[in-house]
Amino acid sequence: MSTMIAHRITGFGGPEVLAEHRVDVPQVGPGQLLVKVAYCGVCRHDLLTRAGAFPRALVPVTLGHQVSGWVAATGPDVRDFAVGDRVMTMIFTGCGRCRRCAAGEEALCEEQTPQFLGEDRDGGYAEYVVVEARTSLTVPATMPLAEAAIMTCTLGTAYHAVVGRGGVQAGDLVVVTGASGGVGVHAIEVLAMLGARAVGVVSSGASVGPVRQAGAVDVIVSPDRRFSGELRRRYGQADVVLDVVGEPTLNESCHAVRPGGRVVVIGNVNGRHARIPPAYLILKEIALVGTKSCSIAEMNEVLSLVAGGSLRARVDTVVPLAQCRAVHERMEAGENLGRIVLEVAGEQR
């Protein structure tokens, strides 16, 4: 049996638990694809998985839920893909049978807890990965594979949050916390495309430039994450707040939104529980909305917008797979901006 290199965790902990292993190349089953990994994005969720924030995570496991590459083999009954096709992956895999899965919304599977790639099943910090054909998409010929790798987690997540869950309209004042991160900066981009007035919230002045470049009309630098007062001074209250940070900013987001407005919770960077006084929701009639991941249909819409030049995936740094532990260390130290991608096979098959 052939073997491959995979960077895996065998227990939870700091970046030191992420180590290189030589393992068997996984076997492809019915309805599945064996993908030769070209690139795999890194996001903060990977760090939380590695640290044990999600105790149900499979251990040992190969991290990585943002994968692009080529089909190396197909399982029985796969009809829509052939060996050599350029593909990218969705994040979640459901039962494949319920009404949500049938609609391409496997993140909301009604029959089982959806499997998270790189957490509940082996992911893309490896030379090969097995994924379901139904949760894979063809990468357009003009799209670099490094950009395709992050498309679902960044633009897909942002598009679903802004359009599908936030109901944002042209002219709306929308605040984005964690605006310099991979999801945040892409949310700014989607908002600008829709004609909304996007205000980014960041913790460092070094992040202001990239967030403005993505289309923000203004950026609030708030190291202590208490930004609602400054927002009110400059603009009043927001129609919508997209909270990418979660527990550290969620109370402040509820302060920042207008009566009758919406707070859309996209992420939770520290994995901790947040406490929201019910009075916020009752007295201001705030809608507190969760968002998880985009559907196949939404992802295809995003791919069309990218192909048409309305949106673009923003890859900030590409590093070799062997440096994944160093990437985790940098991210935990707060030393990176935007989205980092691990190069495995690269663009050349």
UniProtKB/TrEMBL annotation:
Gene3D superfamilies (UniProt xref): Medium-chain alcohol dehydrogenases, catalytic domain
InterPro entries xrefs: ADH-like_C, ADH-like_N, ER, GroES-like_sf, NAD(P)-bd_dom_sf
GO CC terms, sorted: cytoplasm
Domain Enoyl reductase (ER) stretches: 13-342
GO molecular function: alcohol dehydrogenase (NAD+) activity; metal ion binding
Cofactors: Zn(2+)
Pfam families linked to this entry: ADH_N, ADH_zinc_N
Reactions this protein catalyses: a primary alcohol + NAD(+) = an aldehyde + NADH + H(+); a secondary alcohol + NAD(+) = a ketone + NADH + H(+)
UniProt-listed Enzyme Commission number(s): 1.1.1.1
Similarity comment: family membership: Belongs to the zinc-containing alcohol dehydrogenase family.
Official protein name in the record: alcohol dehydrogenase
Lineage, broadest ranks: Bacteria, Bacillati, Actinomycetota, Actinomycetes, Micrococcales
